[in-house]
Amino acid sequence: MNLGLAGKTVIVTGGGSNIGRAILVTFVEEGANVVNAQRDERQGQKTVDEVYGLGGQAIFIKTDVTSWDSVQAMVRKTMERFGKIDVLVNNVGGATHPGLFVQKPREEYERDISLNYWSAINCIKAVVDHMIERKYGKIVNIGSEAGRIGASTAAIYSATKGAITALSKALAKELGRYNINVNVVCPGLTVPESREHVGEKSWWREWGFDFYTPEVQQEVVKATPIGRLGRPQDIANMVVFLTSDCAAYITGQTISVSGGATMM
Questions:
Q1: What is the mean pLDDT of each run of 10 residues along the chain (264 residues)?
Q2: pTM of the predicted model as reported, rounded to 2 decimal places
Q3: Is residue 4 part of a domain?
Q4: CATH number for the domain including 92?
């Protein structure tokens, strides 16, 4: 099946670690030109270097997606290098350490909202005029199962991911007339293939490895009909498909990739 991604220009935020890394690698293998936009310069450049020669091109642009000025600068550099933007994948996200809503400080609420919600708004706003002008664009926002069912120890994170879904549906209605598709992919628990695939600034480094112990992971497996944990490639496959010509008639959808842990 020809996905029609060769020569497309793709921006992936947080493309150096875990899910983002798998998304970036898969796009490059399909012949796309990929911009890895993230803060972690070491991990970001390392991932770009690793995919050299796989098919398409990849470059790293240091970006703070919570900063409007930084995002605008990243988009300008992308245009200077590749001359167009076909695809945006808003992958950056994370949460402060799990805790009850009533016990967490306001500063942590603000961090989660900025990282998970404002980052997507910034990036979409920065590319959408260009996509409208070309009458072509694919936007995939990475949501979360927490945004669909709520997580008792991650209320604000759940709320931001729910907001991503609502925003995406509204934008799909608004932008469809310009041949712009907007969809959401919601991963379940997706464990990195290797610690080497996780940057120092990833939330997996902050608390993920300690929280999702082998015992916790086994409990997740028991509750998953497919009977295993999610792999980064599982998410990447869906993201890349949704941005391909094969999915041209799919928009405004929220798709869980969680082994059946959530069925909605």
A1: 92 95 96 96 94 93 98 98 98 87 92 96 98 98 91 90 97 98 94 71 65 81 90 97 97 95 81
A2: 0.94
A3: no
A4: 3.40.50.720
